[in-house]
């Protein structure tokens, strides 16, 4: 892994004003602080996403920097730009941070890309992180799974349970909207960040996950961001074809003749021979639907 | 599987996936959208028909109502996803196998 941080624009870290969290959300946050203080010390699995950044921020407040640690698991399936943003956010809010390389791609059960691929990824992640918590005397390991996540196809949650990794946001009933509002109130720059699951989630189940495919996806998404595309964005891998999913406003914009040619050129230059725009736009878990493990 | 959809619509009997694509292709033609349909499982990929002077369809797709109609039509034929191939500099990528890479 390169030690250098890809550029993250200052605007990403800006926190605009917005609505205050609800009374219920505030009450949940108070219960979360109590929960963390009762544990006494904590290791937070940290990706720099909305949920784990919020949880790490609250943990820092609840138990202080001597009794908490944010831990990043790095591999080819974790986008460089997200890693850079995660590090910058950690520095900005003063999180003690450790980075650990994970090797899920070396696990053929993961690389074969079965429908429970996430299980093998999380098994590897928690196998690396829980010993760190033990070595440092941290009482509990937590992740940022929230109450909304529990309803989806989440085989990774089983690996967390097997290694006693707790999910206080889910356990205390935090939904994504709560977390975004509370993050904004805390001044966290992640509050409006689009969800950014690992790059392997762009590859249909059954198609092997390889470093080359992950790199092509990452290059293509970076190229599209460089064109100015904001919000939800996925490059779904279908062999030589990249199927691009955009949010509704961006989809409308990029179907215009001049723009769609630019989009196609950018993705082709990233290594795909063919480029398509999905006409329904971005759908979370889209490949779960395509693979028949979730309803359309 | 992904087909070479330049083949004119015809009954291929034992290949249900391809037949679904051809049925969708015919239904699209009936709504005035002449294109080829390639199939990869539940994905229908619309590509410019390989006929002389075939129109580039994305202009029509700028209309959200057309996109909704098309998605509904695809869903009625069993497709959960429908996408349109984009051409860069007038060059479609027809010849690349979607399963390679």
Question: How does this model look, in words?
Answer:
The complex is a heterodimer of chains A (296) and B (101). With 296 residues, chain A is α/β, with parallel strands linked by helices. In chain A, 45% of the residues lie in helices and 13% in strands. Chain A has 13 helices and 8 strands. In chain A, strand 1, helix 3 and strand 2 form a beta-alpha-beta unit. The N terminus of chain A is likely disordered. Chain B is an alpha+beta fold and 101 residues long. In chain B, strand 1 and strand 2 form a beta hairpin. Chain B is globular. Chain B starts with 15 loop residues before the first helix and ends in a 15-residue tail after the last strand. At the A-B interface, helix 12, strand 8 and helix 13 of A face helix 2 and strand 3 of B. Strand 8 of chain A pairs antiparallel with strand 3 of chain B, so a sheet runs across the interface.
């Amino acid at each position: 892994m390169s030690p250098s941080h890809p550029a993250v624009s200052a605007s990403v870290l800006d926190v605009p004003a917005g609505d205050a969290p609800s009374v219920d959300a505030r009450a949940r946050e108070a219960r979360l602080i109590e929960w963390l203080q009762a544990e006494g010390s904590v290791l937070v699995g940290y990706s720099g996403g909305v949920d784990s950044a919020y949880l790490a921020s609250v943990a820092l407040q609840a138990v202080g920097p001597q009794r908490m640690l944010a831990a990043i698991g790095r591999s080819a399936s974790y986008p460089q730009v997200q890693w850079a943003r995660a590090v910058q956010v950690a520095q900005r809010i003063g999180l003690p941070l450790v980075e650990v390389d994970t090797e899920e791609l070396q696990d053929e059960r993961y690389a074969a890309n079965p429908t429970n691929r996430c299980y093998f990824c999380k098994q590897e992640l928690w196998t690396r992180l829980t010993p760190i918590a033990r070595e440092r005397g941290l009482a509990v390991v937590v992740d940022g799974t929230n109450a909304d996540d529990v309803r989806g196809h989440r085989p990774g949650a089983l690996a967390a349970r097997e290694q006693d990794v707790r999910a206080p946001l889910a356990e205390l009933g935090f939904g994504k909207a709560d977390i975004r509002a509370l993050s904004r109130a805390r001044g966290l720059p992640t509050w409006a960040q689009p969800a950014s699951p690992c790059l392997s989630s762009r590859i249909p189940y059954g198609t092997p996950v390889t470093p080359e495919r992950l790199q092509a996806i990452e290059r293509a998404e970076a190229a599209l961001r460089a064109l100015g595309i904001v919000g939800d964005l996925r490059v779904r891998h279908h062999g030589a074809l990249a199927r691009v999913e955009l949010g509704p406003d961006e989809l409308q914009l990029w179907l215009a003749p001049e723009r769609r040619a630019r989009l196609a050129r950018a993705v082709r230059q990233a290594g795909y021979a063919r480029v398509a725009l999905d006409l329904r736009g971005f759908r979370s878990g889209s490949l779960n639907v395509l693979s028949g493990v979730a309803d359309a | 599987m992904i087909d070479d959809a330049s083949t004119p619509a015809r009954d291929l009997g034992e290949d249900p996936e391809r037949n679904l694509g051809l049925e969708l292709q015919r239904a699209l033609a009936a709504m005035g959208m002449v294109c080829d349909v390639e199939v990869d499982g539940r994905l229908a990929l619309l590509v410019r028909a390989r006929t002389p002077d075939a129109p580039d369809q994305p202009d029509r797709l700028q209309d959200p109502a057309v996109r909704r109609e098309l998605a509904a039509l695809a869903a009625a034929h069993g497709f959960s996803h429908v996408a349109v191939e984009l051409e860069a500099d007038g060059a479609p990528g027809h010849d690349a196998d979607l399963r390679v890479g």
